[in-house]
Amino acid sequence: MTVQCPTPHHDDEVVLLGHGAGGRLTAELLEQLVLPALDGEPGPLEDAALLPGYRELVISTDSFVVSPLFFPGGDIGSLAVHGTVNDLAMRGAWPIALSVSLIVEEGLPLSELRAVLGSLGKAAQAVGVPVVTGDTKVVGRGAADRLFVNTTGVGQRHGSLHPSAALARPGDAVLLSGPIGLHGTTVLSTREGLGFESDIASDTRPLHRLVRALTPLGADVHVLRDPTRGGLAAALNEIARDSSVAVEIEEGAVPVPGAVAAACDLLGLDPLIVANEGCLVAFVAAGSAEEALGAMRSVAEGVAAVRIGEVLPEGSGGPGGRVTLRTLVGARRIVEMPLGEQLPRIC
């Protein structure tokens, strides 16, 4: 009898789907191969970077390979705009310019390309950010999967808002702007024809206005992160690691829509690891938590904002870098960083 380990072997020296999932395999790829080759400096890997010499300017780049191209609530065009705008927003920046590059597979119907570009243009106009440059490449049949989109965004930080994944502090309140799991389960259900897509839609939307609502709190907003690949579990683990703190969340406080819970139950997935594209997690000084919730709920993107946990006092929550979940029955379990890819091609 042969027993196969579900954990991917690293001896094969090949890239796995899991290397792009935003979990432990992604971290290993960055730390062992990408950053050393680029002479990258150690430190937290943020959603966007400050431009050297221009401390209030922020830049972020992303590639979108979602399959299918169209899904309830969105498509690869609007997703590309929202994802890039949100990465800038997580560093406290307002978007000022985008670039868009397309890699198109030969044979893609022009009607589909036209629909994607129309959606992308409308999304950029709705945000109020111009697309100032771009590029288009066409590759042969089979060399890509229909259409890939790469975007780069430049933003300018709000003067009082300078969040970083390394700034979480003991006592911070952990806030979530809305329900989790909608994007990942929608895309997967549409791709596989599971039927849940009739009950749910992706939450893809821009979050820069939600972040602007938090600017009056200034330095009390310590961390902002949108839990995309790897979901809430990955985002919280990254923050706990980069800030060297212990984080605890309440299972009963995390909003999981019924259709998402049903889909995850059927597929054996944890909603905490399912990707989102329209919510953010914020670590805010405890004394400003209620004011932050009020600010978030004052805009449409944050109307369902809730407090889901806290950063534990030093010495009371185990080693720094750990995330725990207090279950409905009062027990605690460790929320692990996802290993690899459970939901491929969702962004």
Précis, in short:
This protein is of the alpha+beta class and 347 residues long. 28% of the residues lie in helices and 23% in strands.
Secondary-structure blueprint of this entry?
Elements: H1 24-38, E1 49-51, E2 54-64, E3 70-71, E4 74-75, H2 76-89, E5 93-105, H3 110-127, E6 131-139, E7 147-157, E8 173-176, H4 182-192, H5 208-213, E9 221-225, H6 231-243, E10 247-250, H7 258-267, E11 281-284, H8 289-297, E12 306-311, E13 323-326, E14 332-334
Task: Sketch the topology as an H/E string, one letter per element.
Answer: HEEEEHEHEEEHHEHEHEHEEE
Instruction: Give me the count of strands.
Output: 14
Structural class of the helix and strand makeup? alpha+beta
Averaging pLDDT over every residue, what do you get? 91
Low-pLDDT sequence parts = 1-6
Count every helix, treating DSSP H or I runs of 4 or more residues as helices.
Answer: 8
Radius of gyration: 20 Å
Shape field: globular
DSSP helix fraction: 25-40%
Main sheet record:
7 strands, mixed
User: Which strand order spans the largest sheet, edge to edge or round the barrel?
Assistant: 9-11-8-12-10-13-14
**Could you give the distance between the termini?**
39 Å
What percentage of the residues does DSSP assign to strands (E)? 15-25%
